[in-house]
Amino acid sequence: MYLIGLTGGIASGKSTVAKRLAALGAVGIDADQLAREVVEPGTPGLAAIVAEFGNDILLAEGSLNRAALGTVIFADQTRRERLNAITHPAVRQLTRDRVAAAGAADPHAIVVYDVPLLAQAVAGGLVTFDLIVVVHAGAGTRIQRMVDLRGLTREEATQRISAQASDADRLALADVVIDNTGTVDATLAQVDALWERVRTAEAHANRVSNDIRSPLSEL
Ligand code: ATP
């Protein structure tokens, strides 16, 4: 198995890259999706959240009312930490389970873990990545895409970017940088080239050598 950690700032193009890799044959694991799964109705995660925050954070049909929970934890760090203490271990366990299952199903699987908070996953020793791929587009481009394609105001988009790790911090982790400042086609061509190299690396059971580092990763 070959495990790729895929990250990038908000609206950098992670999903665009992950989708292409999946179409090429990668097994995709989406950290945001796992975070939703651990609080689905019937999970120990949701039960623990109700025990901590009360029934008011449930919708009528019994699923998590994210907006209500968001309001509760937004201004209260202690409560935010309580929520994280419930959800984070559950997400970590599910991540390990899914990665292990992918490897068990196909020892030659190329697994792509799409994780916005990759630095934390690395620092916490969650899993060992064979390759870290950062999707990069400058803040101006990402703000414009959020305004044009997601209906955010410029201020909202800027705020979301400011709330995240800096580009420099993310790029410092990168083995490979996908430059998504150009057209989608230009990005997909980079992904296709990456896929070929990763497949070769997996076949030789070697790490991808440093010579595929993009010049952008030196930023
Ligand atoms: P998020 O952080 O919100 O999960 P993301 O990093 O997964 O976002 P995408 O959803 O892939 O980013 O891309 C953000 C938006 O920009 C999408 O609407 C996507 O269609 C669009 N987009 C991605 N790449 C390009 C590109 N090269 N040119 C124009 N639009 C793009």
Structural class: alpha/beta
The biggest sheet amounts to: 5 strands, parallel
Distance between the termini: 30 Å
CATH topology term:
Rossmann fold
Second-tier CATH architecture: 3-Layer(aba) Sandwich
Provide a descriptive summary of the structure in words.
The chain is an alpha/beta fold and 219 residues long. It has one domain: 3-Layer(aba) Sandwich (Rossmann fold), CATH 3.40.50.300. Helix content is 54%, strand content 12%. The chain has helices at 14-24, 31-37, 44-53, 66-74, 77-105, 118-123, 139-150, 154-162, 167-171, 184-203; strands at residues 2-8, 27-30, 110-114, 131-136, 176-179. The chain has a 5-stranded parallel sheet, with helices on both faces. It is globular and about 50 Å long. Bound molecules: adenosine-5'-triphosphate. The site of adenosine-5'-triphosphate (ATP) has 14 residues, from helix 1, helix 7 and helix 10.
Topology overview:
Layout: E1 2-8, H1 14-24, E2 27-30, H2 31-37, H3 44-53, H4 66-74, H5 77-105, E3 110-114, H6 118-123, E4 131-136, H7 139-150, H8 154-162, H9 167-171, E5 176-179, H10 184-203
Parallel strand pairs: 1-3, 1-4, 2-3, 4-5
